[in-house]
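To whoever picks this up:

The nightly regression suite flagged Sec-independent protein translocase protein TatA as changed. Nothing in the input moved, so I suspect the structure step. Input below, exactly as stored in the fixture:
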Amino acid sequence: MVPELALPEGGEWIVILVIVVLLFGAKKLPELTRNAARAMKEFDKARHGDDDETPAQVTQAAQPPMDGSERRVDLEGGGTKGSSQ
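Regenerated output under the current build:
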């Protein structure tokens, strides 16, 4: 029979915290928590379907500029060239 998994209690959390500090170092912990918070916010946005961009902004960003200022990248030479070629 498999015993039920229980969440850590009291002193177990302290041991887990000490292990995390030893693994990542005290300087990295704020960065790790910030990244975890950002990831949770992005997940909530995606789950609820909240988009930062409206459909008009998406289609406007997808269209190239009409003033002839578009530039092409020369993959063989590595430089940029104007559209006049």
